[in-house]
Every structure is written in C-alpha cells, then in structure tokens.
Design brief:
Distance between the termini: 43 Å
Radius of gyration: 32 Å
Shape: elongated
Strand order of the largest sheet: 6-4-7-1-8-9-2-11
Number of helices: 25
Helix content: 40-55%
Low-confidence stretches: 702-804
Structural class: alpha/beta
Largest sheet: 8 strands, mixed
Strand content: 5-15%
C-alpha cells in the first residue's frame, strides 16, 4: 500500500517545498510620500566616469548628500537613443520612437515641438508614436503615462517635451531652455522634467567639457528647486552603439546617503530607467495608472561607504565590468561550443574500440594513456562554466587586455578543478568523476547564490545589467548548470543507497535545489523552480528502476502544475504593485493584455534560438547522445541499465532544462548550459562501462531478492581479479589488459566450487555505487543465500561481438 502511495506522497512533498520557496518574500521598503514637488533632470549619455569634483562639482555634492546607483537605460530599441530614453521615461515602460533611423541606429530627424500659445507645446508626431508602441512593439507601452497621472507637468527642453507629452501630444507647460529665473516655472506644477543636455563621444576632454556644461545647468535647477522637493538626476540614454550603465542620483527628504534600488532589480545600487516614473509618482503620493508601469518605485537603502570616492567607484567599476563582459561573453561561449564539438568527434573512435573483444578478432584496444587523457579533457570541459563563474571573483576587467586575463584565470581554475577531481577519492570508480564534477559545480553555483549571487552579476556566464533582464539571483546559464549538477548529484547519492530509498534521496536533494532556485531570497527564479520541480519528480519516480511511463510523466506534470498554481494563487493575493512576474502575467491575462507577454516570450525564444551559441552546445550534445552514446556500441544504455538512479537524474535534467528554457524565453540556453556539464560526464562514464563490459561477475553469498535488494541495489560481485573500482570490480583506466580472457570453460575442464564470498580477496559488501553488472549475455546472476555457486565464465556471442 505504501509503495503505491509513494509517487503521490513524493509529489506532495515536492509541491510543498516548491510553493514554500516561492511564496516567501524578502521584506521590501514601502515607498512613502516624501515630496510636494519632483524634478526629473536628464543628461543623455552621462556615466559615472564623467563625475568628479573638478568637472561636475554640483553633481558631486548632490551625490554626497543623496542616494546613488547605476542606471540601466534599456528601452524598446537597442541602443537606447536619447529620444527613446526620454520616451521610456514618460511611459514607465520600454518604448521607442518610430520613423527612420540613421546608421548609428537613432532617428535621423529631430523631434518637432510646436508652441502655438506660448504656454505649452504640441508634439505632432505623438499620435503615430503611440500607435507604433501599442501595435508594433511587444511591450504595449503608453507614451505619456507619467504626465497623465498628474494634474499638470512642466517640460524644459525638447527631450523633456518627449517625456512630458500626453498621449495626444499636449505638453502642459513648456520652455525650450531654463529662463533667467527658473523658480516660477519649476514651481508651476508638481512634476517638472528638465533636459540638461548630452554627453557623448569617446574623447575624455570633450566629455568633460559637456559634463561641465550640464553640471552648470544642474546648479541653476538646484538653486531654483521648490521647497520640499525631490530632484532625480539620470543619464537618460546611451550616446554610443555600445550600451553602458549610467548615473542615477536622488536628492531630497528621505533619500540621504544611500544606495538606490527597486523591486525590479532586487539589488542595491541598481535601478532601471522604467523605475523613474513610478518613483516620481510614489514620492508625490499619487496612485499608479491602471495599466501598471513595468518599473517599480525606487527606494534608498543603507550600506553605502561614507567616502564618496569609494562609493562612486562601485557603480563605475560595475560599468567597466559590464562593458568587458559584453565583449568577452560571445567569444567564450563560441569557443566552449567549438571545444565540446571537437571532443564529441574525438570520442567517437574511443567508444567504438573501448569494449574488450574475445579472441583474436576485433579492434585493437585503445592505449590506457590516451583514454586517461581523454577522461581528463572531458572533466575539464565539464568544469569550464563553473570555473568561468569563479573567475569573476578576480577583477579581470580592469586590465589592459581583459579577454586574455579572463582566459588565463579561467584556464588556471579549470586545471585546478580537474586536478581536484583526478586526485579525489573514488576517481577510479565508474561514477567517480561524474559525482565529483556534479558536486563541485553544485557547490560553486549554490554558494554564490547563498552569498548574494555576486558572481552572477555582469559575469561572462551570468547576466549583464546592460541587458536589463536580471539583476539578482540565478542567470540562465547558472540555472542550467545548477539544476544539472543538483540532479546528477542526487542521482549519484541515490545510487549508493538501497533501491527503496532512492526516490526519497532524489526528492531530498532536488527539493533543496528547488528552494535555492525559487526563493526570492536566493535564486529568485520562479519559472526555473517550477521547471526543476517537474525534473525532480521525473527523477524520483524512475530512480528505483523502470521507464518513464505515461503515468509517471503525469505525476511529474502534476507536481509542476501544482507548484505553479500554488504560487500563482499566493502571488495574486498580494497587492498589484508587489506581485511577481507570474502574478503580473496572470493579471494581464485577466485584463486582456496578456498577449503582449506571450508575444514577447515567443519572440525572445526565437531570437535566442537563432543567435545564442548555447544552442550549438545543446544540439551538439543531443546529436552525440542520440547518434553515438545511445547506440549499442555507445555504452550509455548499458550505463543506464546498471545505474538506474543516474538514468533518472539525466532524464530529470532534460525535462527541467527544456521547460525552464522555453517558459523563461531562453529557448535552448538552459539546455545548452546543462549539456555542457552532463554530456561530457555521460561520455566519460560510458567509456568506463564499455571498458568493463566483458568483465565476469562473481555472485556474493547471501544475496537474494528475499532480503529486499534487487539486482541493481548495490550488492555487487567481485571483478575478474577480485576487488577494484569498476562496475564489476575491474578498476583502472580503460584499455588496460584484462588478466583473464573472456572465454568459456573447456569441455573437459572439471568444475570447481567457489569459495565462500567472505573468503574472497577483494570482495565488496554493499557498495551501491558499483552494483553487479550484467554478464555478456545480458543477465545478472543471483545466488542462493545458503548454497555456494561456482563462478560463470561467459563467452560473448557472435551477435554481441558484431553489435559492438
């Protein structure tokens, strides 16, 4: 009865762990009304490297007294041109200007601003811009949402007019520049938006001069600011083809000497351009529009260094790191994909010749040294991604040649990790390298997530703040290697215990991984947690043996759906401004705007599928598995038959990686990252299993089905020379000469009775990692608990020889 209820009980346990992880939310500061007036001052292209006490003394003093952060200026167009940045500011969502664009990607014509009455202004192109964003772009932004949320607004300069224009094109109050006395103008409305100019170009002297001019205009704004006002200064857009992080400073009551952050980033010191509109409304105590902004109100958090130079170095350093990451990341993944493809091609002849053949016929065995070198190369390839993550602990981006420094440090870490695996206890075991690599990867990524995911941000294998996708938690690549490492580690542990305990071990290890991935305190990836729940359920139900049947797949699907539904219910019960991505998506479905999210997800999946080098990793790994490892000569089916818990872990990894990538808009990126770890280790384990395919298994006295241990429960027999670390006791590198030929007994040879197993040198008791391997005929010998059984020497059939 309990055995029949086991799938249901395990499903319930996984669901409870998943929903608990997703439902818990870290406390967030609630934005309060702090000002009677808000002034948004924009300087296109301003970066933290442009700010210093000499060129920008006003901004320096403002940063000293206020809160600062790095601003991601993502919009609906890349790069974010000044007009796109101003439009996104006014929309509170990713928006872009329509019309033709020049070679640099920005609109070729200036924005037309008409002043028919000398008070306000009109933008004649606003209607077409609204239609373009509503009908052609996937974000459904409404330009002018910020100005529509207040009674009146002031715009100074053409860029500010773009941000302050209402959806029908009207600007309430407008001036082309700051008047001699800006006080009456800035005090006319509760919201003022000021265009302070542009800082562009690569020449430091030119940038310093433009920053000095903008700082002088900012000094006039601060001198004329209304009482009890909040002033926000933002580097509103990019001015080069390459995206960068920009300046964000808030000065006013309640914003003293802290880091700027918001719920949209979840990381201190980081803010998005779309956060500025809800920040202004929250500071004024005004309600948000019916169609919520994509951004969230910013708040000020503590922990900023007292020394301003040290504080400003942090966002400036983040900008340099993000810029270096962009230039190195593509080359790294392309090289990784190429190396893994070459390893896949190189391992094919080794797989063909790895299986020992009886008699003089058959291919010559591969040299043990060659196989040992190939094993180390496979281990190194599997450790490349976690090594690249650890490389971010070294400030490689500060050097003159950051790419070469990154490559050198990564190579050293790969070599160190490979050596650690090679000399780890149990390396000679068939599953030794697989367990060591999976455990090491899980440990590296898990510790990083538990300590704030600092290595994920702006990392080559993490996420970039320039992309504006994630700022905290697990990255797409991190999710792939972590779920693969956790599930394979769970399978390795499960293989070492009694068959009846394997599902529980998989649930225990996988459940902890679900918590790490899904908790907003840690991985902050609810979609990844739901996908991992399905993978853990699949792994648990087949870890004790058997195939992935329809009923077992249904249990896994039910677990994932239950976690998703449970989290959705919890998320929808929160206030609208505090909901997560899933709750906001379901709310959008309810009000008829969910099509934008579906369109965005499908577009992101297609673009990622076509452009990402991780797609090559996923496809190359799939081809190697399907056309080589799963073939009769490939060894993977034999590995899965001997170690069902490992088969379960691999199946769960595939399910979780595919679901996580598709649901998160990452296509095959999660699968590619998982394949970078799993495929090399599966190939290595297959090589070792093939190397022992002809080994004889000596049954252990006292082993039978009556004592609760099945054929794969872990009571393995001894190898051909008694003891060892291979699946049947024959350890050592592949290609080593077997001391006993695999031949049948001579017809005239007298039968000899085996000595009791307890007297056999090298006998192993209960090593579940190395269970008894089937003989060449495909059966696993059983032994009567009281009658000694003579060892069988088996001749491989001609059919099996031909198949290999």
């Amino acid at each position: 009865m309990l055995r029949r209820l086991a799938p249901a009980l395990l499903t319930v346990l996984v669901v409870v762990l998943g929903v608990t992880a997703l439902a818990a939310r870290p406390p967030q500061g609630t934005p309060q009304r702090t000002a009677d007036f808000v002034v948004l001052a924009g300087i296109a292209g301003l970066r933290w490297e442009d700010v210093d006490p000499q060129s920008t003394p006003t901004l320096w003093r403002m940063a000293q007294d206020g809160s600062i952060g790095s601003l991601s200026v993502r919009s609906a167009h890349r790069p974010t041109c000044p007009v796109d940045g101003w439009l996104t500011l006014g929309a509170g969502s990713f928006a872009a200007w329509n019309g033709s664009r020049s070679v640099d990607g920005c609109p070729s014509a200036a924005v037309t601003v008409e002043q028919p009455d000398g008070i306000g202004a009109n933008l004649p192109d606003q209607e077409s811009v609204v239609q373009y964003n509503q009908q052609r772009l996937p974000w459904g932004a409404m330009p002018g949402s910020l100005s529509e949320s207040v009674r009146c607004s002031v715009a100074v300069g053409p860029g500010a007019a773009v941000a302050a224009a209402r959806p029908f094109g009207r600007v309430d109050r407008y001036a082309s520049g700051l008047p001699a006395d800006p006080r009456p103008l800035l005090g006319a409305c509760v919201l003022s938006i000021v265009d302070l100019g542009t800082v562009k170009g690569a020449d430091p002297a030119t940038r310093a001069e433009e920053a000095r001019a903008a700082d002088a205009e900012l000094a006039r704004v601060l001198a004329a600011r209304p009482p009890r006002s909040l002033v926000l200064v933002a580097g509103i857009s990019d001015t080069t083809q390459a995206a960068r992080l920009h300046v964000a400073v808030a000065d006013g009551p309640g914003w003293e000497r802290g880091w700027l952050t918001s719920a949209s980033t979840g990381r201190d010191g980081y803010l998005q351009l779309v956060d500025l509109a809800p920040t202004a409304l929250a500071a004024l105590g005004r309600p948000m529009p019916e169609r919520l902004f994509l951004g969230r109100p910013a708040i000020s958090t503590g922990g900023r260094p007292a020394d301003l130079t040290e504080a400003i170095n942090a966002p400036a350093n983040a900008d340099r790191e993000a810029a270096a990451q962009r230039s190195v990341s593509g080359a790294f993944f392309a090289l990784l994909a190429g190396v893994q493809v070459l390893l896949a091609l190189a391992i094919l002849p080794l797989l063909r010749r790895a299986r020992p053949h009886a008699g003089p016929a058959g291919p010559t065995p591969v040299s043990g040294r060659i196989v040992a070198v190939m094993e180390l190369l496979l281990v190194a390839a599997a450790l490349t991604v976690p090594a690249a993550l650890l490389t971010d602990a070294v400030p490689w981006w500060r050097g003159e040649h950051p790419g070469w420094i990154f490559a050198g440090v990564t190579a050293l870490l790969v070599a160190a990790g490979t050596a650690a695996v090679r000399f780890a206890p149990g390396y000679a075991n068939t599953l030794g390298p697989l367990g060591a690599v999976a455990g090491l990867t899980t440990l590296v990524v898990g510790l990083d997530v538990l300590t704030g995911a600092r290595l994920q941000l702006n990392s080559v294998v993490g996420y970039s703040a320039l992309q504006g996708g994630r700022y905290a938690g697990l990255s797409t690549v991190g999710l792939g290697v972590f779920l693969a490492g956790a599930l394979v580690t769970g399978g390795w542990f499960a293989q070492r215990v009694h068959r009846g305990w394997r599902p529980a071990v998989m649930v225990a290890v996988g459940g902890l991984a679900v918590v790490v991935v899904g908790s907003p305190y840690l991985g902050a990836d609810p979609v990844g947690a739901i996908a991992l729940t399905a993978g853990v359920s699949v792994a648990a139900v087949i870890s004790a043996g058997g195939w992935l049947t329809i009923s077992r797949l249904a249990w896994a699907a039910m677990a994932a759906l239950a976690v998703g539904i449970g989290f959705a219910v919890v998320d929808l019960r929160r206030p609208a401004a505090e909901r997560g991505s899933l709750g906001r998506f379901l709310s959008a479905l309810g009000d008829g705007t969910g099509g934008f999210a579906v369109h965005r997800s499908s577009t992101e999946n297609f673009e990622t599928l076509v452009n990402s080098p991780l797609t090559v990793l996923a496809l190359a790994g799939g081809l190697l598995v399907w056309f080589a490892l799963l073939q009769p000569w490939g060894g993977l089916m034999r590995l899965f038959g001997i170690y069902p818990a490992v088969r379960a872990a691999v199946a769960g990894t595939v399910v979780a990686a595919v679901l996580g990538g598709v649901l998160d808009g990452a296509a095959l990126d999660v699968m590619g990252a998982a394949a970078a770890l799993v495929v090399p280790m599966a190939a290595l384990a297959s090589l070792r299993v093939l190397g022992h395919a002809a080994d004889r298994t000596r049954p252990v006295a006292g082993r039978s089905r009556a004592n609760g241990a099945d054929d794969d429960s872990g009571s393995g027999g001894v190898g051909p020379v008694g003891g060892g670390d291979g699946p049947t006791g024959g350890g050592g590198p592949l290609g080593a000469v077997h001391p006993r030929p695999i031949t049948g007994p001579s017809p005239s040879a007298p039968a000899k009775v085996a000595q009791p197993a307890s007297d056999t040198a090298g006998e192993r008791h209960g090593d579940a990692d190395e269970p008894a391997e089937p003989t060449a005929s495909g059966s696993t010998p059983d032994a009567d608990p009281t009658v000694p059984v003579p060892p069988r020497q088996v001749s491989r059939s001609s059919t099996e020889v031909a198949a290999s």
